[in-house]
């Protein structure tokens, strides 16, 4: 380290260290220095105690900026520090304020790389849809009033659920930004979430809980349409979809839980399936009934990869909506995939199966029920109630196990 007045001729004559870096400090402006590295770079810096800690500010590289320019920049920073301004925090804030909604979303994806694929798909659907005009907007420019206005606009053109989901996605981005971007003191560069205005005004839309399900008298025509789709359309996707939809109806599984079921999580000898990745993060093991075993045995004959309900495009049956639409049109019964799960639960309740057993079957969390916490339930204890549910569907649909094979 050397100390002398830093001039252009001095900087031009400076050699580079063989390893690491060396500092040459100015003897007329305290804290002003030039740093040279073994990599061949020269940069002006300013060192100053800020908030009781010595901080180093890079002013710029030489010759991109001159000695005179660097000295003026150092004086500007020293003036800010003298008046209580932290120039490092100020610079970080200025850089952060250039971030757009789309840029923060890309960082969100990078950091939260363990989220489900459908989460990323849903977010981008909104960013490329109703929020498209905000993609390149700086997040500091999206105000509370803009949030309220956009939410009201979405409520006028879409369902309450759609409008609320758009705002929840934005809120997730702002919450991420609050924790991700901080100054050198650990303070958030984005402390405010404009979506909070909806809560303050109690403006979140009420989302009526869906109560739709497949009624008992609709089960037989639905099953007939399923069998027709399975064996008569000639489409491989319909062939898979028919078993997939019946499987969901008889297990109460969520759409994606059934679609991603793999053969290594099927034990036909023991009569169980295992779902390791569920919505509530608690693995689920279900006993198989006679019809479920028949479906899986049949599907095993047509296996093309590791997934039970396979697809040549995605690997697993990821896009069943086309088959569902066809089935609704043919059966004249309007329903969604979640209606299948809702029907399973309703049937279980109608058979007077205990609420504890139903919760285990559909993998609902126990909540605050203390008594339930003492009950140990395994899949063998669920086998009898599971078969009772299947027997109900067998009667209503007039299912014969030979139907599964098309006999």
From TrEMBL:
InterPro entries listed in its UniProt record: DNA_brk_join_enz (IPR011010), Integrase-like_cat_sf (IPR013762), Integrase_catalytic (IPR002104), Integrase_DNA-bd_sf (IPR038488), Integrase_DNA_bind_dom (IPR025166), Integrase_recombinase_N (IPR010998), Phage_Integrase (IPR050808)
Species in which this protein is naturally found: Thalassotalea nanhaiensis
Highest taxon, organism lineage: Bacteria
Residue span(s) of domain Tyr recombinase: 217-387
Transmembrane segments: none
Family: Belongs to the 'phage' integrase family.
Presence of the UniProt keyword DNA-binding in the record: yes
Record's keyword terms, sorted: DNA integration, DNA recombination, DNA-binding
PROSITE patterns referenced in this protein's UniProt entry, alphabetically: TYR_RECOMBINASE
Designated name of the protein: Integrase family protein
């Amino acid at each position: 380290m050397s100390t002398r007045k830093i001039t252009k001729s001095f900087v031009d004559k400076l050699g580079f260290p063989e390893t690491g870096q060396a500092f040459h400090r100015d003897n007329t402006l305290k804290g002003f220095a030039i740093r040279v590295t073994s990599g061949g770079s020269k940069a002006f810096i300013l060192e100053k105690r800020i908030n009781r800690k010595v901080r180093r500010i890079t002013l710029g590289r030489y010759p991109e900026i001159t000695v005179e320019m660097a000295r003026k920049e150092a004086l500007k920073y020293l003036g800010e520090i003298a008046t209580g301004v932290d120039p490092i925090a100020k610079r970080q804030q200025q850089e952060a304020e250039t971030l757009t909604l789309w840029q923060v979303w890309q960082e969100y994806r990078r950091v939260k790389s363990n989220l489900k694929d459908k989460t990323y798909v849903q977010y981008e659907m909104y960013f490329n849809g109703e929020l498209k005009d905000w993609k390149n907007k700086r997040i500091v420019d999206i105000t509370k009033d803009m949030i309220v206005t956009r939410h009201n606009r979405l409520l006028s053109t879409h369902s309450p659920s759609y409008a609320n989901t758009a705002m929840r996605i934005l809120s997730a981005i702002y919450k991420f930004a609050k924790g991700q971007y901080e100054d050198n003191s650990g303070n958030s560069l984005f402390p405010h979430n404009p979506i909070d205005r909806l809560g303050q005004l109690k403006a979140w839309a009420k989302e009526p809980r869906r109560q739709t399900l497949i009624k008992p008298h609709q089960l037989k025509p639905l099953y007939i349409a399923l069998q027709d789709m399975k064996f008569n359309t000639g489409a491989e996707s319909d062939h898979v979809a028919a078993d997939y939809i019946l499987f969901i109806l008889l297990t109460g599984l969520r759409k994606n839980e059934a679609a991603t079921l793999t053969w290594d999580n099927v034990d036909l000898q023991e009569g169980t399936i295992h779902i390791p990745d569920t919505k509530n993060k608690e693995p689920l093991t279900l006993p198989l009934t006679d019809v479920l075993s028949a479906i899986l045995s049949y599907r095993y004959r047509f296996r093309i990869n590791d997934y039970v309900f396979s697809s040549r495009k995605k690997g697993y049956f990821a896009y069943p909506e086309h088959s569902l639409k066809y089935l609704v049109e043919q059966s004249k019964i309007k329903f969604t995939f979640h209606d299948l799960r809702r029907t399973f639960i309703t049937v279980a309740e109608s058979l007077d199966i205990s609420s504890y057993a139903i919760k285990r079957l559909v993998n609902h969390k126990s909540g605050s029920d203390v008594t339930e916490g003492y009950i140990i339930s395994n899949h063998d204890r669920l086998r009898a109630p599971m078969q009772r549910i299947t027997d109900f569907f067998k009667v209503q649909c007039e299912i014969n196990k030979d139907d599964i094979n098309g006999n």
